[in-house]
Here is the input.
Amino acid sequence: MAFLIDGKKISSQIKDELKTEIAEMKKKGTEVTLAVIQVGNDPASSVYVGNKKKACAYIGIRSLAYELPESTTEMELLTLIDELNNRKDVNGILVQLPVPAHINEKHIIEAIHPLKDVDGFHPRNVGALVTGEDGFVSCTPAGIIQLLKRSNIDIDGKECVVVGRSNIVGKPMAILLLRENATVTICHSHTKDLKEVCKRADILVAAIGKPKFFNRDYIKEGAVVIDVGIHRNEQNKLCGDVDRDDVMDLVSAITPVPGGVGPMTIAMLMYNCVEAVRLQKTER
Ligand SMILES: NC(=O)C1=CN([C@@H]2O[C@H](COP(=O)(O)OP(=O)(O)OC[C@H]3O[C@@H](n4cnc5c(N)ncnc54)[C@H](OP(=O)(O)O)[C@@H]3O)[C@@H](O)[C@H]2O)C=CC1
Ligand SMILES: Nc1nc(=O)c2c([nH]1)NC[C@@H]1CN(c3ccc(C(=O)N[C@@H](CCC(=O)O)C(=O)O)cc3)C=[N+]21
Ligand SMILES: [Mg+2]
Here is the structure.
């Protein structure tokens, strides 16, 4: 029977470790501050932003919340980012995505100073990830590596299949798995024989954004399945990209939704905020 990977518990452990570390930093006079910017009021974004603020409060990070109207122009947002880039008392800047259609996401990502880009979305941080240099790593894939390591799931030499190639999940996930010495395959909407490719996976990462898409036809017996997708139905019930009931008896371990990858994303954001203080000390 499958082992449920408890992202809630593991994320709590990480947050407690960070809480201790931040208390130590405070004794030495160092404060950690994260600025969170939300443009518009998409309800899902509000939930995630709320969870981020709660985590900050819990571990002792000061959070500055900017709730801007949907009508905010790109120029106004860029002006705020510039102001925060220049503030010595701000360590991390996060602009919740997606931004409204009239704002160019790429311009926003590139405007954030790479040493404050706690999301790890800036091309400089993406480049650093690929070459193995210091920088911020995208929170969701970094959280997945922590989930695997802290559950004693071996990655070295394993066949890992990542389904999805977005800049924030699929691509950095593949690079991190490669860094752990996995054999990595990346699949996407043009992949032929997706079922056959997924069936090779010792570790399958499902990140396509389609509710319950992955059923038992995609799973090798004994595989570890990481479900990144999050979907909310009419009754406000959450599910992932994986049809968990259908695959449960086949897998060796699986992440639930909710309580799997989502809480880890938040924990790694907190980790990156602490990392920001370190990087800013050495590189500024
Ligand atoms: N738990 C968490 O912390 C987080 C969860 N998420 C969730 O993860 C999911 C993915 O997010 P994100 O990466 O931003 O999504 P995107 O929509 O940016 O990317 C989806 C990817 O999946 C591929 N894809 C879509 N349909 C298929 C298909 N039928 N077969 C194979 N590949 C397919 C696309 O291929 P192509 O490139 O060819 O179009 C694309 O590469 C969403 O449900 C999102 O809500 C996201 C971030 C954090
Ligand atoms: N700049 C930016 N950075 C992000 O990191 C970012 C983003 N934009 N846009 C959207 C995605 C999604 N994301 C999640 C964060 C927390 C949960 C989370 O807390 N999930 C809980 C449940 C939350 C709920 O009740 O909906 C769980 O899975 O248990 C999920 C998803 C961060 N993202
Ligand atoms: Mg996306």
